[in-house]
Design a protein that fits this description.
alpha+beta, Cytochrome p450, 5-stranded mixed beta sheet, 3-stranded antiparallel beta sheet, 10 strands, binds protoporphyrin IX containing FE, heme, Cyt_P450_sf, Cyt_P450, metal-binding
Length: 424
Amino acid sequence: MTTEFKYEKFFGLDEEQLKCPHTAFEEVRSECPVSRSDGLGFWVVADHENAQKVFRDASVFSTKKMLGEQVSDEWQRMVDMAAQRPGAKDVLGEDYGTSDRKVLLFADPPEHGRHRRLIMGALTPNALKSWAPRIEETADIFVDGIAAGEEVEFVDGFANQYTMTVIADILGFPRDMVPQMLDWTEGFNSMVGNPDQTDEQIEALVDTRYGFDAYCNRQIDDREANPTEDLISRIVKLNAASETPLSRDDLFQVLQLTMVGGSETSATALSKMIEFLGRNPEMWVELKAETDRIPQFMEEMLRMYSPVQGSFRAVTEDIELGGQQLKAGDMLWVGMGTSNRDPKVFDDPDRMDIDRKQLAANHVAFGGGPHVCPGTSLTRMELRMVLEKIITRFSGVELVDQDPAAKKSFNFYGPAALPVRFIS
Ligand code: HEM
């Protein structure tokens, strides 16, 4: 017998379910938290306890065999084509295009730990202290650029620009590269899950691949000669000191994952927060009166409207999970958004309550286990600073579109576009 699940429509990118994915998983979460959809061909993990088991065991629940394979199949095609461009190997070295680029989110332990160490040091709360004045200044510049009463498309016109500027500074890319970085990110995001590309689209993606790699190559050369305090310099230094250094190709991939992972996610979170405040003006008033409650508001938003709704894994050995027998080779999708609405962990989970205890420690908006997001402190800092300024400067926000469409994705959750007016 084939069982159909309500969440299948969500994976089929049904507009209503994308806008509100929370009800699609309610039934399975309580009755059958680990379920297999024959239609979709993968398992869905819908509760907090089993999601944590998946996150923690990154060897049995492999990202390398899942997300990494996608890289091989789809991204690798672009790498091969970029490496065949006339002169590419002269510019980028004979090795260019030969690595499988399975790093960070595309790697499993123990290699994964080595890749993490390259970036983690620069992203700890302590290391970020030195970046705080710069991020504060960036938030000021952006918020100063908003005119009260004027319509702004918040997603592209503010959030994407702001978060990419912050990540450009941290990486060590000059700010005038931000438009280019946004284009590259859009290109990289469109490479996966879109097998029906036209020749023209493929050529554009090869441009993205080659352009990004060639640019990073020059940056890495430069930092080897003239190190600074930026993330590229740190990575170059740590990699050179490693017994098993990563190749240039792999380093390009580390930089790509940091740029892509560090921009759209935070921008999506910020946009959803502004949308929520537009619908709930009383919350704006509350936060304006007590700005030190903004961090709690942010955590509750991350829980209720998780910007990354879920992520895939491949099962590497037969294993029991949530009363189900999974087999080596099975695919599963682990739901962060649905786990964050698990009533076993969060009382009355569909209610916004910024006074919840232990919120940051309990929600899984940033995943968990070895792959837990390395950008949590940075995101918390950049979002707090910009929200504080917006809320302090204005008295509210008006949604021009009361029912904005959601991003067409079952991984990223947030408005695709958000026209708004800030009120003086
Ligand atoms: C609200 C903002 C953010 C959210 C919701 C978010 C969410 C996540 C999640 C859920 C994962 C784990 C994915 C999985 O296990 O399959 C992850 C990993 C990752 N994130 Fe974030 N992220 C955010 C911001 C950032 C920032 C600012 C950076 C850059 C500094 C970043 C860089 C990365 C990287 C490189 C990984 C892969 C880590 C690894 O595999 O070890 N993220 N993120």
